[in-house]
Amino acid sequence: MTAAFWNKRAQKYNDAIEKHDAVYVQTIESTKSLLSTSDVVLDLGCASGEFSLDIAPRVQRVHGIDTSTNMIAIATEKAKDRSVGNVTFDPTDVFDRSLDAQRYTGVLAFSVLHLVDDLRAVLGRVNELLPAGGLLISQTPCFGERGLLFKLLVGIAQKVKMAPPILNLTVPELEAEIAGADFDIAESKEWDPNNAIHWIVARKRQGSS
Question: pTM surpassing 0.85?
Answer without folding.
Answer: yes
